[in-house]
Amino acid sequence: MKTKSFSRGFTVLELIIVCAFLTLAVILFFVQKSNVDAMNRDEDRKTAINAMYYALEEGFYEEHKYYPEEISEEVLTVIDPELFTDPLGGYINSGYSNYVYEATNCKDGKCKGYTLRAELEKEDDYVKKNRN
User: Fold this and answer.
1) Is residue 32 assigned to a domain?
2) What is the count of structural domains for the chain?
3) What sign for the dihedral angle of Cα 88, 91, 95, 101?
4) φ/ψ (deg, to 5) at 103
5) Is residue 34 part of a domain?
6) 9 belongs to a structural domain
7) Is residue 25, in this structure, part of any structural domain at all?
8) Which of 16, 53, 111, 120 has the fewest C-beta atoms lying within 10 Å of its C-beta?
9) Residue 130: left (phi > 0), alpha (psi -120 to 50), or beta?
């Protein structure tokens, strides 16, 4: 009497299914990671715009009674200079930045208003305007 020997291992079909499942899981992981990273960069942009806004309103305007024509770390010394550089490395109002400062009604470097804007990846632009 002969006994049947069973080979132990996986079939090709089982290996293909496992590889397909793992590939799908890896793709989903990186898509979600990309979305989370973009949302974190957007939050960093909002934080920077808010810091600039409050520095302009509660620091610069209170002292000078006007707004500057341009902003930089030399003008707004009360905030961290790193905040003028967006998460992707562009300095405010440069061609590579997601941050824009637009002064309005200016005369001799003294302005009556401004708009601060951050271009976000996952939401509409984040905009702050002068309150005075």
Assistant:
1) no
2) 1
3) positive
4) -85, 150
5) no
6) no
7) no
8) 16
9) beta
Each residue's pLDDT, cut to its tens digit, for the chain (132 residues) gives 566 666 678 899 999 999 999 999 999 999 999 999 999 999 999 999 999 999 999 999 999 999 999 999 999 999 999 999 999 899 999 888 999 999 999 999 899 999 999 999 999 999 999 988
Containing structural domain, residue 87? 41-129
d(CA 55, CA 58): 6
What are the structure tokens assigned to 35, written together? 């979305």
Residue 67 CB coordination number (10 Å): 24
Place of tokens 């992707």: 88
CA distances from 18 to 22, 25, 83, 108, 121 (A): 6, 11, 46, 69, 35
DSSP characters over the chain: -PPP-PPPS--HHHHHHHHHHHHHHHHHHHHHHHHHHHHHHHHHHHHHHHHHHHIIIIIIHHHHSSEESS--TTT-TTS-GGGGB-TTSPBTTSTT-SEEEEEEEEETTEEEEEEEEE--SSSSPEEEE---
